[in-house]
Known about the structure:
By secondary structure, the chain is of the alpha+beta class. The chain has three helices and ten strands; from the N terminus they run E-E-H-E-E-E-E-E-E-E-H-E-H. It has helices spanning 39-43, 134-151, 163-169, and strands spanning 13-20, 26-33, 51-54, 57-68, 72-77, 81-86, 100-103, 109-111, 129-131, 155-160. The strands form four sheets. It has a three-stranded antiparallel sheet with strand order 3-6-7, with no helix packed on it. The chain has a three-stranded antiparallel sheet with strand order 5-4-10. It is globular, with a radius of gyration of 16 Å.
Amino acid sequence: IRNDAIIPDRFDDTFVVAYKDTQGNKRVFYCPITTDPGLHWLKKPMNPDGTAILAPGQHLGIWQKGLHRGKYTALVQRKPAYVIRDNNKDAVLNFDSKKVVSGIYGINLHRASETTIVASVGQYSAGCQVIPVIEDFLYVMNLIALQGKYLGSTIASYTLYMETELDALA
């Protein structure tokens, strides 16, 4: 759930996983996340078209278990996704940019630091969805491992809601 406040460099969004455990019990897990790129990458985009901001909506089968940047196990992009390209190199997240494109851009779900809780997004996200608390990230990865064990797949879908969309559902 992307927070309506559009302030960069904060882990101010919410990651939610709803599932049934092996006993059929309904479970919900949630933790802080950023769904936005860090200020560093807003000002210095990796891509000449601008910094990627994952577009809200449902991204079916977007991720699978793999290596983030070849370094550690995370959920890595396996299917095209829509992103908004913010290319004005300022400190403002521009969700209304006219540059919406689809492709495989390395929009992964990964952790920030392995050793500490991170307060600022900084360089941890150039468009990825990033969990700041290692224990929360490991819990999510354990769920993916259990999904692989019991369902035979480590592919995950992702639905990104804007906070205002949830208000409309209430």
